[in-house]
Amino acid sequence: MTATRVLVLNSGSSSVKYQLLDMRDSGRLANGLVERIGEQPSRLKHTPLATGGESREWTGPIADHDAALKAVAEELAKDGLGLDSPELAAIGHRVVHGGKHFTEPTVIDDAVLAEIERLIPVAPLHNPANLTGIRTATALRPDLPQVAVFDTAFHTTMPEAAARYAIDVETAEAHRVRRYGFHGTSHAYVSRATAKLLGKAPEEVNVIVLHLGNGASASAVERGRCVDTSMGLTPLEGLVMGTRSGDIDPAVIFHLARVGEMSIDEIDTLLNKKSGLIGLCGDNDMREIRRRIDEGDERAKLAFDIYIHRLKKYIGAYYAVLGHVDAVAFTAGVGENAAPVREAAVAGLGSLGLAVDDELNAVRGDEPRLISPAGARVAVAVVPTDEELEIATQTYALVQKTN
C-alpha cells in the first residue's frame, strides 16, 4: 500500500491545530484544534471531513503537548485515520523561524532540531512551541519522516539590498539582525494560485500578495521568487495589524523608555499586543470596525484610514520594486472577506492600472476570483490561502523525493 496521507501540525504555545490530507487528490480527511493546553479547561474540536460526520468537541484537562497529540491521535483513530495507519506518509510541521539556513522544507533530525533551537532568540514565542510539537510527534511515530516547513523559507530569495538593515554590519551578523519575513507558506501558495488564475506559470508573472489577517504582511513576488516582504526580523514590522503597530520610528522605543519610564517588556507588550487596530480604536475585528464606521464612529474611521494608508503605501512601494505588476492578490481573513478594505486599498491608483469592479468585489466565495474590471491592466484578485495544503504539498514532495 502506497502511503499518501500527510498530517499537518501547527503547534502554538498553548494550542495545536491539525489537518490530515490525502495527497492523491489533496482531499481533507480530518481537521481540528486543541486549545488552552495546560489550562482549565482545555478544549478539543475534531471534524471528520472524510466521512462527512459532525464535529466532536471535548473539554477537560490536557496537561501538555504530549497529552494533546495523544488526544488528537485518539480522535483520528475513531474515524479509522489513526497515526498508526500504514497510509500515513509523513508529518509536516509549521516552523515559524528558519533563519537564513533553512531555505526549503527539511526532514528533521538532531541537527535540524538544534538549529531551530538556536533560533529561539529571534522567535521566542513561536520556535519553542514548534519544537515541542516536533518532539512529541516524533515520540509517537519515531519511524515516520517528520518534515519542517518554515514560514521564513519563501522569503530567503530576497536580495541582500532588501534583506539587510542599514546598521553596523558586524553587529548585525553577530546577532542575526536582518529581515526574514513571515507568512511565507501563504505567500508562496497565493502567488502560485494567482498565476494559475491568470492562466500563466508562476515564472511568467509579478504579483503583490497582501496577506491580511490579524497578522498582516505584504510581499513582492517576481517571477515566482520573493524579492521583498513587509515583516522583518520579527512579525512586528510592516503593515498595521490587529494588535501590532507595524512600522514605527525606532526612537519611539527610546522615548517611551526614557520619558515614559517603560521597561523593555512593557514596550514589547505595547507594540505587539496593544497597538495596531486595537490600540487605535479598541477593536481588532474588521467587521466590528466597519459596523462602528457605519454608525459614525470617528475613532473607528481613523483606525481604518491609518490601516488603509499603510497598506496603500506598500502597494505603491512594491509596484516600484517590481517595475511591472501583473496582479495584486488579497488573501487571509480580512483580505478574503472585507470588500471595503479591498476597495479602499486600490482607490486612487487607477494610473497604476489598479481598480475593482463593485459588483465583483461584493461577491463572496471560497474559490480564487478576479475582482478587477474586464480588460484591466493589472488584475486584482481574491485568492483564499491554504497554508495547510502548502505545508502538506511541500512535505509530501520532499518525502517522495527522499524515498
Q: What's the structural blueprint in terms of helices and strands?
A:
Layout lengths: L4 E7 L3 E8 L4 E9 L6 E6 L8 E5 L4 H14 L9 E8 L10 E2 L2 H9 L8 H14 L5 E5 L9 H4 L5 H6 L9 H14 L8 E7 L3 E7 L2 E5 L21 H8 L5 H10 L2 H6 L4 H9 L3 H25 L4 E5 H6 L1 H8 L11 H5 L6 E2 L8 E4 L4 H16 L1
Parallel strand pairs: 1-6, 6-8, 9-12, 12-14
Antiparallel strand pairs: 1-2, 2-3, 3-4, 4-5, 7-8, 9-10, 10-11, 13-14
Helix pairs in contact: 1-3, 10-11, 11-13
Question: Could you explain how this protein is built, in words?
Answer:
The protein is of the alpha/beta class and 403 residues long. Helices cover 38% and strands 20% of the residues. The protein contains 15 helices and 14 strands. A hairpin with an 8-residue loop joins strand 4 and strand 5. The longest helix is centred in the C-terminal third of the chain and has 25 residues, at 298-322.
